[in-house]
Amino acid sequence: MATVLRADRVVFRFSGPDAHRLLNDVITGIIPSGPNETASLWALLSPQGKILAEGLSGFADDALWLDVHQSVADDFFKRMRMYRLRAKVEIDDLRDTHRVGFSTEASGIAHKDRLGPVDLGYRIIAPVEATADWSSDETPYHLARIAQGVLHLGNDFPANDTFAHDIGMDQLEGIDFAKGCYVGQEVVSRMKHRGTARRRPVIVSGIEAPAGSAVVANGREAGTIGQVAEGNAVAILRLDRISDPAAVTVDGKPVQLDLPAWATYRFGEAVTEDAE
Questions:
Q1: If you average pLDDT over residues 152-169, what whole number do you get?
Q2: DSSP string spanning 59-121?
Q3: Most buried of 139, 198, 211, 230 (most Cβ within 10 A)?
């Protein structure tokens, strides 16, 4: 298939002898340490554990390539330069020279999208001049990721509002639980070991309402839907408020709820204590 342009993504290239250490010490994911065809899911968190940026990291041409949503690109660049301190790292903002795409076939700087149980084809990065024949219709990509229960900051939820567990990063290998400290690690670790994650990704279909509409169960709001593609979306929902998945509405109309194939959680689950 033709490569689909993901017009709302911005690319940053991290190079230099300390690039891996910097990223490993700051963001959540398993950072590639050398050539690997698979990209790694990651997030930059606030000290309170909320997601400030998220995307994929892949290694190519002696550098690590990370993409983020355009709405947080400036903040991400500023924060990473601050965390760099005296480390020997070059951080290049490539929004004027490179583009991000999605394809089922590898070409150019290509990485399998992503570690974990989800297969979304390839993340493609290419110079602007090489993207003239890319498709501008992002619908195929969003249909693919929604069907897998994958959420994106900027498309489905805002920055500094959502925990990593809320979007299933703990189950999608977006968190390296074996490495040392990174920003927000204490909150992530506490949610894992205490089982306090009460909001989780749920696939919603049959939608006749815009993104941001409330999902209502038993007369109570359980969460809101993200970007809608052909009547489908992913919502971050309070599982404990959904005792009957067949009796849920969006904008007063019934919808269908399905858990992602990779989910280990279930509807109706309660937690021992509330997440912060």
A1: 97
A2: EETTEEEEEEEGGGHHHHHHHHHHHHTT-S-EEEE-TTTEEEEEESS--SEEEES-SSS----
A3: 198
10 Å Cβ neighbour count for 179?
A: 14
Q: How far apart (Å, rounded) are the C-alpha atoms in residues 158 and 146?
A: 17
Residue with tokens 């903002």: 93
pTM of the complete model beyond 0.85 = yes
Closest CA to 94 of 114, 65, 57, 131: 65
Q: CB of 23 within 8 A of CB of 34? A: no
Sign of CA dihedral 120, 237, 49, 159: positive
What kind and span of H or E run contains 187? helix 185-194
CB-count burial class (<10 Å; 0-12, 13-18, 19+) for 199? buried
Instruction: Indicate left, alpha or beta for 72 from its phi (over 0: left) and psi (-120 to 50: alpha).
Output: alpha
User: What's the confidence (pLDDT) of residue 115?
Assistant: 73
pLDDT in tens, 10-55: 999 999 999 999 999 999 999 998 888 899 999 999 999 999 999 9
Residue 160: DSSP 8-state: T
